[in-house]
Amino acid sequence: MQPRNMSMSGVVDLAAVKQAQEAKAKAEQARAQAARQGGTGAVSPADLVIDVDEAGFGSEVLQRSTEVPVVIDFWAEWCEPCKQLSPVLERLAVEYNGRFLLAKIDVDANQMLMQQFGVQGIPAVFAVVAGQALPLFQGAAGEAQIRQTLDQLVQVGEERFGLTGLVVDPEAEPGAERPAAPERPAGPHDAALDAAVQAMDAGDLGGAVQAYKNVLAEEPGNTEAKLGLAQAELLQRVQDADPQKVRQEAADKPGDAQAQIAAADLDLVGGHVEDAFGRLIDTVRVTAGDDRDAVRLRLLELFEVVGADDPRVTAARRALARALF
């Protein structure tokens, strides 16, 4: 089993987002329950580092990623740099006290997972947050860089997906089964949002767009509907595009706003988030009037698709401000 967004495309996995939006309430309930019951439901520090194989990936990584960011350490016994990096990650997993879970995957025994994540060399470190996979770094890294990356990961998990982490109790028995958190009551628009996701999965992008618009008409601030609408409209724009023709036109017309907008859409769907943002920011610099406004507005739409708290969006917003002013 693998995340639906295993392509690392940067496009939001809507089912995972919906599930993740409930994680904060569930995690907080678990923390409160643990406090009331003297630590019942908490995990041992030893449970913050786990060995994962292909059979257990779904339950031990994907399912857990709706509670806490899961950092994946791809390693092998023969890999000397891995022997330097892994102990650092294990120590930090305990130090961060449940803010992330470390999953160790032996690439020699789990070739399929290595291929699914597109691992080209080890050590390689990825994360799965609310079912969405993303690369962190590959090769040797200093502890300061690792801490900075983990801090950003934890921040995104908390602010964007509501993941408050695991409750850790030094007195808890390692491997003890944790009670399930109480189910969150269904929201007023859950049925409509589920129908929109199903339409997306079935390729009915028009139906998904309309379903999300219906939700937003009643609740303009609904985060999931905003994300879903941005993604559905993006996919709708590129579904009939000829990638080779679009990219050739963009190469031939570097100052053409519509050519660059079309190419940026393909960049984002293909997982080249920074390329999409950079292309449009460069186009803002060389256009004016209505063309510049069109490029700027499309860039803001793509920010919505990736998510306002994504570090790449933050950096691109600063670059856009410099290009405009």
Overview features:
five-stranded mixed β-sheet; 325 residues; single chain; 9% strand; alpha/beta; disordered N terminus
Can you walk me through this structure?
Helix 9 crosses helix 11. It is built from 14 helices and five strands. It is of the alpha/beta class and 325 residues long.
How large a portion of the residues is in β-strands, by DSSP E?
5-15%
Q: What's the arrangement of strands in the largest beta sheet?
A: 1-3-2-4-5
Order of helices and strands: HHEHEHEHEEHHHHHHHHH
Uncertain segments are 1-21
Secondary-structure blueprint of this entry?
Elements lengths: L13 H8 L1 H14 L12 E3 L5 H6 L7 E6 L4 H16 L5 E6 L4 H6 L7 E6 L2 E7 L4 H19 L28 H12 L3 H14 L4 H16 L4 H10 L4 H13 L3 H14 L2 H18 L4 H14 L1
Summarize the structure.
The chain is an alpha/beta fold. The chain has helices at 14-21, 23-36, 57-62, 80-95, 111-116, 143-161, 190-201, 205-218, 223-238, 243-252, 257-269, 273-286, 289-306, 311-324, and strands at 49-51, 70-75, 101-106, 124-129, 132-138.
